[in-house]
Amino acid sequence: MERNGGTSGCIEKRISENSTPANELKKTTDVFINHAAIAWQESRRKWIGDISQRSERMPKDPIISWSMTYEDVLSTNDPFSEPIPLSEMVDFLVDIWQDEGLFD
Fold first, then answer.
1. What is the Cα gyration radius of the chain?
2. What global pTM score does this model have?
3. How far from chain centre, in Å, is Cα 27?
4. Which of 23, 42, 90, 103 could lock 97 by a disulfide, CB 3.0 to 4.6 Å apart?
């Protein structure tokens, strides 16, 4: 039995020597660093590039003429002279649908 008690005391001594006080442990756990957010921001910065290096875009004339009708667009299989930005196509379709009462 004495041997058991001696071992127990030795273990407790080692634990107390190797443990850090609760207030020191609290100091190290108060700071949270979101490594995932940092990595995401770095990836985003690489993807979008340096904003300060971008040139100002001049607004372009619309590719779809405002006099063009829905039938004009659908009546031909010929491609447009250049790609139509999605926002322009959406504006065009919404205007047509509103005129026809299909979009409220």
1. 34
2. 0.40
3. 32
4. 103
Task: Using the Cα atoms of residue 83, residue 88, residue 91 and residue 95 in order, give the sign of their dihedral.
Answer: negative
DSSP 8-class letter at 33: -
Residue with tokens 């273990």: 11
What pLDDT digit, counting tens, does each position of 45-96 carry? 888 887 776 666 666 778 787 788 878 887 888 888 888 889 888 988 898 8
What's the full length of the chain, in residues?
Answer: 104
Q: Are the C-beta atoms of 93 and 84 separated by less than 8 Å?
A: no
Beta-carbon contacts of residue 24 (< 8 Å; ≥ 6 apart): none
Q: Which residue in the block uniquely carries the two structure tokens 């205007």?
A: 95
Vertex 24 angle, CA 22 and 26, to 5°: 70
